[in-house]
Amino acid sequence: MDRKEERIKLLSMVDIFESLSREEIERLNEQLPDLRLEPGEIFYGPEDRSEKLFFLQQGKVRIFRAAPDGREFTLAVVGSGTIFGEMALTAQRLEGAYAHAMEPSEVSTMLREDLERLILEKPEVGLQITHLLSERLRRYETRLEDITLKDVHSRLASIILLLIESEGRRTSTGYRIPTHYTHQRLGTMIGANREAVTRAFGILQDEDVVELRRRLIYVKDIDHLRQVAEYGEVQEEERTP
Are residues 111 and 22 in the same domain? Predict the structure, then answer.
């Protein structure tokens, strides 16, 4: 499959474009300018007032919020074939939000006026965007709650769940995250230092929830992980059979 066909296939699989015909998808593909990104490159921030919708053709992007003290809190990790940036098209703009490439990536951009023109031509696209906004708002509110109310143990469990959702692979015993994440990198993603992440990860290992194999995270008990993410460390008497 050549690059053009791959891009068209990815676009056709995006929820908001599912009502478009093959011809319309091809035309849309030709109108989307591309941006190539290097790992660690920040390509969107609070100072960017342009109203764009981003489509990740390939790679991985992290959307995070920066606190005044310099800590970063991850709101989402998105992979190939994902639309993001829709918050900038509404009054619900996320304050202090950044987007940066976690690996070599290619992003296509769509200006607000082009999206509005498409919605006028295809009202179904606008309906799908409404559904997308509703779901994304719910998820971002949950992540912001994690930032302000939960301890490192819970935030670590929450980010591992987010990584499973974005890139996890099923195994015979649970899930595997195929990307190597150091404790330092995980700490950056949840607003904690490396030592605190190491302690929290050790607790999750002691609880037999996760394990580390060849520097990759394996989740053995996702239900327990969800419980930790929501409520914090499970009390000893609750874990005793």
Answer: yes
